[in-house]
Amino acid sequence: MNIEEWEAGVPQEIRDDSLWKMESYRLGLFLSDLAWVDAGKLLKDVRSAGMADQLCRAVSRISASIAEGYSRGTGKARATFYEYALGSTRESRDWYYKGRHVLRDKVTTHRIKLCTQLIKLLIRMCSNEQQQNIRLTRVSRVR
């Protein structure tokens, strides 16, 4: 399944939310659906069964943290949740690498690239929110 096909199946109520405009949220949500299938494969091998749970937990926190951060009123609070999402994305990439012995090379490469794309977006988001917080702090000091 590619992201365009997947997006068509996402409920309209989610796609109508302004949060949906954030690429990082959409990619995180897409990755969580992919991880659901991947975890099923990991569960079939006793050596990677524990990874399945860890992968699902890490991946599911990505879009959830972005959603929570998006809903916060200050740049500092948003940055905190975007940093949580960043940590969860890096953890997910780590679990995907470890699961490469069970998952096909093509699947592992795709998931690692998707995580890396998300990491780059989240680093930029964190930086933007932190810079906004610095500017606001400076303005409030001048007043």
Summary?
The longest helix is centred in the C-terminal third of the chain and has 38 residues. The protein is mostly helical and 143 residues long. It contains six helices and no strands.
Polypeptide structure, described:
The structure is a single chain. This protein has a single domain, classed as de novo design (two linked rop proteins) (Up-down Bundle), CATH 1.20.1440. With 143 residues, it is mainly alpha-helical. The chain has six helices and no strands. The longest helix is centred in the C-terminal third of the chain and has 38 residues, at 105-142. Helix 3 (23-43) runs antiparallel to helix 4 and helix 3 (23-43) packs antiparallel against helix 6.
How many domain modules?
1
The named CATH superfamily? 23S rRNA-intervening sequence
- Main sheet overview: none
Shape: globular
Reported CATH architecture: Up-down Bundle
Number of E-type strands: 0
Distance between the termini: 54 Å
CATH class type: Mainly Alpha
Rg, alpha carbons = 17 Å
Topology:
Layout: H1 3-8, H2 12-15, H3 23-43, H4 49-70, H5 75-98, H6 105-142
